[in-house]
Amino acid sequence: MAEKLYIEALREGLREEMLRDENVFIIGEDVGLYGGAFGVTKGLFQEFGENRIIDTPISEAAIAGAAVGAALCGMRPVAEIMFFDFFTIAMDQLVNQGAKNRYMFGGKAKVPMVIRGPMGCGTGAAAQHSQSFPAVFAHFPGLKVVMPSTPYDVKGLIKSAIRDNNPVVFVEHKLLYWTKGEVPEGDYTVPIGKADVKRDGKDITIVAGSIMVPRALEAAQKLEEDGIDVEVIDIRSLKPLDLHTVVSSVKKTGRVLIVEDDPISYGWGAEVAAGIAGSEAFDYLDAPIKRLAGLDIPIPYNPNLEKHAVPQVPNIIEAVREVLK
Amino acid sequence: MATIVKMPKLGTTMTEGTIIKWLKSEGDPVKKGEIYVEIQTDKVNIEDEAETSGVLRKIIAKEGETVKVGDPIAIIAEEDEELPDLENVDNISTQSQEKSPPVSQQQEDKTEAVKQTISDKIKASPAAKRVARENQIDLSNVIPSGPNGRIVEKDVLSYIQEHKVKATPVAKKIAIERQVDLKAIQKSPGQRITKQDLEDQIIQDVDNAVDNTIPVIGMRKIIADSMTYSKKVAPHIYLSLEVDMSKVIDLRERLIPLVQAQHDVKLSYNHILIKAAATALRLNPLINSSFTEEKIILKQHINIGLAVALKDGLIVPVIKDADKKGLAFIAKETEELIQKAKSKKLLPDEYHGGTFTITNLGMFDIESFCAIINQPEAAILAVGKIIKKPVVIDDEITIKPMMNLTLSCDHRVIDGAVGAKFLQNLKQILEEPINMLL
Amino acid sequence: MTLSREKKLWMYRKMHEIRNFELEVDRLFKANLIWGTCHLSVGQEASAVGAIAALDEKDMITSTHRGHGHCIAKGGKLPQMFAELLGKETGYCRGRGGSMHIADLEMGNLGANGIVAGGIPIATGAALASKLKKDGKVTLCFFGDGATSQGAFHEAVNLAAVMKLPVVYVCENNLYGMSVPFKKASAVENAADRAKAYNIPGIIVDGNDVEAVYNVVKEAVERARKGEGPSLIEAKTYRWLGHSKSDPRVYRTREEEEEWKQKCPIKRYRQQLISEGIEEEVLNKIEKEVEDEIKKALEYAQNSPEPKVEEIMEGVYA
Questions:
Q1: Calpha distance A68→A112 (Å, rounded)
Q2: Chain B residue closest in CA terms to A260
């Protein structure tokens, strides 16, 4: 095991898959010589050349559409969208085409593509470069959506995503790229559709995703000093959603707080909350299910306002205390 | 409109009060202004008036229970009204938290609106309902501890624990026959009450039958705690001497009519003692002090407390700045305070802030005694009865009215010689009262 | 079309404002006083100023993520622009928009835009409004070479051409998208060549010659105002600095950059004005005034208050 950066682990995963399967290629803006806007593909152009690391004009619709088309024809493209916000430009191709081809064609086609990009605020990129809305894609049948939060998970999940025969929306977070974690040597995968208990506890369950996982873990550590034992679940996969892990946990603790990066209205946490309330965990709830998520506003530019737009560690601590009152 | 009655704050330093007696029961009607509960704070009893009319729907703080100022003690409402959310009661323990950012609480805002609807249902979490269901508990008997008057799981579990009585069939039979309350029998949790336990309990009940008890609450508890504490922290030394009270007796005779005329009170020895002590304290500031770990505080003011016996305890009303007041005024003030003390109407400010205490048991024929220092003071003066005694003056026996003064000193502050000097001064003042004019 | 002396000096002044503003922003960013990132247009001053000089005050523009120059030329006030970059309440967008989203609808600035080609359909829409309202306004739409690869470009220009809308599309081709050179992103050599696909005039101009830009845009604006429909103008230029603040510019050579710096639009114009008889002192005075204005504007911004967190939810809905 070695400690690696999230971005390094991701790059390794991409590289290893490209070595393993010649049908895998990367396509996107400035992914070649430039190495990717955030540096994810750094060095890959030099190793694999311009036929497998493909720079495109600024054309998200074409990028997504080309990935769909290539996948339908047996390739395994990994499309990079520079900022998650720009997924909106690729919507028709991803949603009306890629997500539906297999079903529409009677199960006689498959679209084994990955489309990935970083969401989230905290870098002052303002309203059109800081959004989080992974739930939108989980809503469309035919797509899979994963949201790794650690170097270990990102490498394991990119491999699973590439090997999966369905279109996978691979959701990264700008603030996670430079976080560190243990990553084993050699090939390994993380299954799509399984949540992960990142911390055991008995007083309350926090269900978190993406950047909120490290924040929840930090909050849990602080709360431990006050004798509050927090269980933290990394939801990891939005589609398929692993409610089973969540329900077992809530049955144990009786209290749950869901923490998300996306704006609260219609965020993925609502789906988890409904899932809990409708499950056998209902009879074990000792307090109402609580959600903590971003404000319903476009992300502001001003750094102080930006910080207040989404949950931070003190907010999580306060919310836990609320639930335990 | 339902009202949640809270423990009132009745003195600047009051932090909690004890319910002494509910003059009404749950379900009784109450009129606004009617006295319906007696509360004790430190040492005074206060009768509280109902702030609104209605029915005393729920008694939250029971008799003997001590409750923080601001915490709920009862609910007055209409007869069939829905009892209000106890969450609306702001506890004094709510600290103002460091300003937290307004991260979305939309979920909570939505449920806030829903809470307004009145329903007959008891509020209980699903977990609580399940436990109740599994144990056949009627939730209306369970006291909620959750927000908004919600019964949570642990409330039901507590209820079960409290009401769990395990007994053998034989024991149960005897209990019914002999009318023994099974709950009164102490047993480790989970253990069954047996026939032997019943028989032991019955014997014990007989033994206990004649004993009366006085609960150690309120003033009694305070006296017990504070006297124990004083003896524990302050190493007491006792200095004793006798004072020739001839001139004081004389002075008193002459002043009685004057004081009566001025303030309509009878001048007593205690009043003179207060003035004399105040004068002596001015000359001996160390006696009028207070000990703390880092420093001894020499008090600016001379506030003399006079111990007053009550029916079931004692209280020490304080005459503030006794050195600055005239004898007549001291007499008036002292008598007023004693009256208040006896009728338990003394306010906390009137028995706090003393710097020196005088206690006099002369009226009970006590010739001398050693008193316990009233913390955080440094000394206390015990006064005995004035007795005509044979004394030797210029080698001749003569009869003089002598009074014993015993000064208890906290040796952390007052050494023997220092205490002795004070007593000497006091003796001088009493034996030559004109000194009080200085 | 001879320009008045006043107009010439205005253009000279505006180019200086832009150059100084951008360099000041660069300095502030290096000193860690600006949050996020910035896309600076140092070297592209002439295309912004020359084009906007051809507009009437009531006309409108849409801009790009590299829009400080457009905003300043269209009347953007330096204090409010600095304030917005510093995230202050007194900025054009109350500190909420930042560099890429500066707008001032009253001055006809329909906004910079963080999405490449995001402003092109909006410009088409503004022109549509003018046509329906018959208000005689023309919209000037700025975008870069990279934007011509977006589907939105095709759709918006096509629609405007079909409806003969009063809009002028100005492509500032600075030869690179982010890192990808135009020749690798386009099968046609010039962006203006695409005009044929829409049957509208496509004109190439030296983007660093401010008066040349002015002349070409003026013609196109007049065509549009007369109801003859849109034009596509390609101003060839170069950005001296990287795409954004995190760009080490590995995709081009320093020699290339030096070559273009020699063709600095401001230096060129100064020489031109002097050769036309404008006194050097007049030009120096303008430069000095601009320097002072920049200082004052920055001070204003630095002394301005931060937005209040309690007001964070304001402005989402009308």
A1: 8
A2: B104
